């Protein structure tokens, strides 16, 4: 079978020339490791063969020309390897398509080749727009190759194009099919949803109830005690005081910075005394801490340095802070390695030591809380699915009410083209099931997974707008193009897979190492 040469009038001749230039750009390898190939262990291939594809082959010189146009001396080794494998794979796919074209008789004729060559702009006189043989010869000579090599390459590309034209033939789409697809795309659904999960309060109560049973069981005491010993520090809290602080530093103090580097120790002591006097006369501590403070963090937080104990501040400061309380809120000036500090009490926490018995129930919740939640969720989902499957709406409503699960409206009208629902998450599973809803009150007959949440869906109302005929025709064209693309891609993969299955593709191992 032959194609009329008019079929190729839409093919860009520039694409042929560009592809040709890439393949014939140069003939020398520029990457390490391919200069000399070990002729052994080549799966029966000649060392000068990059790959065998059916009855044809890709020679190493041809492969080198392609790869040299895509690599440089600075290409990292891992990236170099990936490019090599991508290039040989692409060249193999082209050879497979060319072979398939030949097998069904779609071979480029001399007449078709002549028409194509004469149509390439590089071979046409700029003034007359006519083909000139001398321009053709000059171009071939500039590429340091023979006319036969050029002809062979161009012929293969034309045969590949023929094969692709066959694979991309339009797939007929009926008007009724386009109308059905349009209905799927445009139908609007007003929906309600109920998240299949116990509300936090109900879940907490049930976990606490189950955890108590676990904690009361003597068989579980060793597990609980081991967890207590491993996390004992959580239950032993030192006395702490939340305080405000003002630091007046000087140039020889530790961590001195900013204005403090211009201040002597004596000057710092005098300034601290002045601040203390203002505080005692009623000046707001937070105001002074924000204005005059060499501790930048405290300055930016109106003096607040959080809860303090001996583990997170120097010993002299800790002693002064822990001595403060509601009746004695202001510390004297404290001399520290960082400068002179004044503290103000805001809140205190007494030391706490919780015994095993104090926290046994909390430990039980840590150990079995997730397991209990998973079981409760699984049991709840089964109950709801069973009620929906049996179309027992009374039972379903009873389960929802018992577990304090309520119906809520989806805030936005839903269409199957929507990929996400704000209240629930990804809508893929909804698109697959929403057309099972026929009448208001209908419920999709299973719990749907939205990624972050699971929910049941109920129809409130739906609307299917009437689409004009011209839009239906436009949709038909889109569906035909999409179908052709899918068919071509699937066919190409199938052809290649068949070659691989029948061991018709052999790659020189040197290209894969």
Automatic annotation (TrEMBL):
The chain crosses the membrane at residues 16-37. The keyword Transmembrane applies. PROSITE patterns: PPIC_PPIASE_2 (PS50198), PROKAR_LIPOPROTEIN (PS51257). Its main location: membrane. Keywords: Cell inner membrane, Cell membrane, Chaperone, Isomerase, Membrane, Rotamase, Transmembrane, Transmembrane helix. The lineage of its organism: Bacteria, Pseudomonadati, Bdellovibrionota, Oligoflexia, Silvanigrellales. This is Periplasmic chaperone PpiD. One of its GO terms (cellular component) is plasma membrane. Belongs to the PpiD chaperone family.
């Amino acid at each position: 079978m032959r194609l009329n040469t008019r079929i190729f009038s839409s093919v860009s001749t520039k694409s042929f020339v560009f592809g040709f230039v890439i393949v014939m750009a140069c003939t020398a390898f520029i990457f390490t490791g391919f200069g000399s190939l070990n002729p052994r262990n080549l799966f029966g291939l000649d060392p000068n063969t990059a790959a065998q594809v059916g009855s044809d082959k890709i020679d190493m010189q041809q492969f080198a020309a392609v790869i040299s146009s895509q690599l440089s001396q600075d290409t990292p080794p891992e990236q170099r390897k990936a490019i090599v494998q991508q290039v040989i794979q692409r060249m193999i796919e082209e050879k497979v398509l060319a072979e398939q074209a030949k097998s069904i008789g779609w071979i480029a004729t001399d007449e078709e080749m002549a028409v194509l060559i004469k149509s390439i702009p590089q071979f046409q006189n700029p003034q007359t727009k006519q083909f000139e043989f001398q321009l053709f010869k000059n171009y071939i000579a500039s590429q340091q190759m023979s006319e036969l090599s050029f002809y062979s390459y161009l012929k293969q590309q034309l045969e590949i194009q023929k094969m692709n034209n066959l694979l991309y033939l339009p797939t007929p789409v009926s008007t009724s099919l386009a109308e059905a697809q349009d209905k799927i795309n445009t139908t609007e659904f007003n929906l309600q949803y109920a998240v299949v999960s116990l509300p936090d309060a109900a879940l907490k109560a049930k976990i606490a109830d189950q955890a108590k049973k676990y904690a009361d069981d003597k068989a579980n005491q060793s597990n609980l005690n081991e967890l207590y010993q491993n996390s004992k520090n959580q239950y032993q809290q030192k006395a702490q005081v939340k305080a405000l602080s003002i630091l007046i530093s000087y140039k020889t103090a530790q961590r001195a910075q900013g204005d403090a580097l211009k201040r002597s120790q004596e000057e710092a002591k005098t300034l601290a005394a002045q601040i203390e006097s203002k505080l005692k006369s009623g000046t707001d501590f937070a105001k002074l801490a924000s204005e005059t403070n060499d501790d930048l963090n405290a300055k930016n937080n109106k003096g607040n340095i959080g809860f303090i104990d001996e583990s997170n501040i120097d010993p002299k400061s800790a002693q002064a802070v822990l001595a403060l309380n509601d009746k004695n809120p202001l510390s004297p000036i404290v001399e520290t390695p960082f400068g002179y500090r004044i503290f103000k009490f805001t809140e205190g926490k007494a030391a706490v030591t919780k015994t095993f018995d104090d926290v046994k129930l909390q430990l039980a919740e840590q150990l079995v809380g997730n397991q209990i939640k998973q079981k409760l969720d699984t049991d709840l989902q089964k109950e709801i699915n069973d009620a929906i499957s049996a179309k027992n709406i009374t039972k379903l409503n009873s389960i929802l009410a018992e577990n304090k699960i309520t119906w809520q409206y989806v805030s936005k009208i839903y269409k199957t083209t929507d990929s996400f629902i704000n209240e629930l998450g990804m809508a893929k599973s909804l698109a697959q099931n929403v057309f099972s809803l026929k009448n208001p009150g209908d419920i999709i007959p299973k719990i749907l997974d939205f990624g972050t949440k699971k929910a049941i869906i109920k129809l409130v109302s739906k609307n299917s707008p009437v689409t004009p005929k011209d839009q239906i025709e436009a949709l038909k064209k889109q569906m035909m193009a999409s179908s052709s693309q899918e068919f071509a891609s699937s066919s190409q993969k199938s052809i290649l897979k068949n070659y691989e299955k029948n061991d018709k593709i052999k790659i020189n191992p040197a290209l894969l190492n």
